[in-house]
Amino acid sequence: MVRPYVIIGTGAAGMAAAERLRLLKPDIPIQMMSIDEYSHSRCMLHKYLGGERDEKGLSFVAEDFFEKKRIMWGQGQTAKAIDPKERRVIMEQGYQPYEKLLIATGSVYGIPPIPGFRTAANVFGFRDLSDAVKMNEAIGELHAKHVFIVGSGLVGLDVACALLERGIRVTIAEMADRVMPLQTDAVSAKAYQDLFEKAGAQFRLGIGASGSVVDDANRITAVELSNGEKIPCDFVVCAAGVRPNTAFLDGSGLAVERGIVVDEYLQTSDPHIYAAGDVTALSGIWPNAMDQGRIAAANMCGQRQKYTDTFCIKNTVNFFGLAMLSVGEVEPKEDSLIFTRECRNAYQKVIVRDGRVKGVQIQGDISHSGFWQYLIKNQIDISGKLSEKSVFELGYGDFYGMDELGEYRYV
Length: 411
Prior knowledge:
By secondary structure, this protein is of the alpha/beta class. The chain has nine helices and 23 strands.
């Protein structure tokens, strides 16, 4: 029997890998499996929860992708374990042999150890389509009018935005002193907080949940805060704290630390198994996950391609029409120069240290700003340019023709 190349996960890394495998190996059997019955973009889940799209509308590949690429897809299949010795994936029912295996299972949410949170029937995460479906069902069954959200990061605000669009009140608790603390500073965070509050959201910043009130149906009816306040709710969403999805690898012998340990070729400690995407903890950025999938697929086919792009401190967000690009450091370290420019509906901040840009926030018009990532990622010395013009006047033209060492090949 010819063993197939198997991919666990149909997210960004898994789908990019499948496409590359088929390109490089036109005749090999390829088998994919995922816990969901629809391939989907995790970045678009809030549009499903908000009622803008159905399950099919979340796909980021053509509707005939699997048929056209001749890829078998085991929908609704969960990998329970890996048996590297026999080269097979153990599932809830039966097993799947493999010639080469790519693990692209992404990440999972964690439920904090708050009394009632891990046992109540109405506590949800928001990482997969199945989570969004469960939450959508709960809205109808409970006639939800008020939802409590733990965490004001990108996921928490995505959930909040979707619920607000459906007329559901939300209260968001955040341990930090501002919303989206990993992407914003005090100024940019305040702009988003104002927009959410105008839409009806309430925030509890610098405050954590400490307990809950649970009814006879094992549902949380109120969340107790560390300041003694009780917030009534119909259900709870945990949107703080995610980790690589590696629990099913216990006992497999694969090296796992923060995520699955891979080398520069994205090969695990087993020569027949590769990993890509969030499960490796290398990067949480969508384009990086796709690059990892393609490179892992190439190496599964015998090529020797290295994955070198580990820069992952970049986020682009847009809530209520206010866009923001956040790259690199958010808070300046010692000996940093801080440049800011602010006007109505626009805020820009650049952090420079030792003549090199360390962080940028651009809120408002983020067009023509891609070169900032290049400057930060490659640590280009901009000292000479700053002697001629303001940091906010820099653009592509100032660095056109510059090589990876920061020197010009031509102008």
